[in-house]
Each structure stands twice: as structure tokens, then as C-alpha cells.
Write a structure and sequence with these properties.
Layout: H1 5-10, E1 18-21, E2 25-29, E3 37-43, H2 58-74, E4 83-85, E5 101-105
Antiparallel strand pairs: 1-2, 2-3, 3-5, 4-5
The structure holds adenosine monophosphate and zinc ion.
Length: 114
């Protein structure tokens, strides 16, 4: 997707603070952090929303979840706790239509979310 922000970040056409990269995904610092730790785990493949997932993506999404947990652990939040969020479409607040897993940690969080 030539006009996708996260595809451009994956290809290093737009700068970002990359904290993890492997063959399937990157993790970057969110430019507008909502918690002391706010990272985005982004697959290298362009997938617009969770509605576009197929069975072929099961392993990828599982690895994204495990990567988020591993990063949270590296930052000392495994026991304190952290939040992982995928927003999907308008009412959730999704603004970038390339799936990304938010990892938020470092402050108490409320439930239900706003
Ligand atoms: P969402 O609203 O779930 O689609 O989340 C999009 C997230 O991407 C927001 O938290 C934004 O702050 C973040 N974001 C937007 N542009 C950039 C960028 N250039 N680098 C890093 N994060 C970004
Ligand atoms: Zn994309």
C-alpha cells in the first residue's frame, strides 16, 4: 500500500523510533503516547483492519501478542500489568488503517475504556 503510513514506516520511508524488528513485524514508539510506555506492534504485511484477517494470519497475530508481552516484561510491567488494544474502524477510534497492537503500561488504567 503506497499511501499507508505504517507501510512507509515499515519501509523506513518515514522515521520512527523502532524498538523491535524481525521478519514479520516492527514495534515503534507511539508519537502521541497515552501512557509512560506506549508502543505499537505493527505487522510488515498490510492488513487494513481485524475484519481483514484470515486463518493465514493466525500465527502472525499470535506472535504480535507474544511480542507485546515480551516487550512489557522487558520494561518491568509483566506483573504490574499492561494493556493491549486493537482498534477497529470508526467507533473504536481507529485512525491508521494498517493493523497495529497498542501496548500501554506505566499507569493505572480505567475500565471500561472511553
Ligand atoms: P489508532 O487510533 O488505533 O489507529 O492508532 C494510531 C496510533 O498511531 C495513534 O496512537 C497515533 O498516535 C499513532 N501514530 C500516528 N502517526 C504516527 C507516527 N508517524 N509514528 C508513530 N505513531 C504514530
Ligand atoms: Zn500498510
Amino acid at each position: 500500500m503506497s499511501d499507508c503510513l505504517f507501510c512507509k514506516i515499515v519501509k523506513r520511508q518515514i522515521p520512527a523510533k523502532v524498538v523491535h524488528e524481525d521478519d514479520k513485524m516492527i514495534a515503534i514508539e507511539d508519537v502521541n503516547p497515552q501512557a509512560p510506555l506506549h508502543l505499537l506492534v505493527i505487522p510488515k504485511a498490510h492488513i487494513a483492519t481485524l475484519n481483514d484477517l484470515t486463518g493465514e494470519h493466525d500465527a502472525l497475530v499470535g506472535e504480535m501478542m507474544r511480542r507485546a508481552a515480551a516487550i512489557a516484561r522487558q520494561h518491568g510491567y509483566a506483573d504490574r500489568g499492561f494493556r493491549t488494544v486493537f482498534n477497529t474502524n470508526r467507533e473504536s477510534g481507529q485512525t491508521v488503517f494498517h493493523i497495529h497492537l497498542h501496548l500501554l503500561a506505566g499507569r493505572p488504567m480505567t475500565w471500561p475504556p472511553g
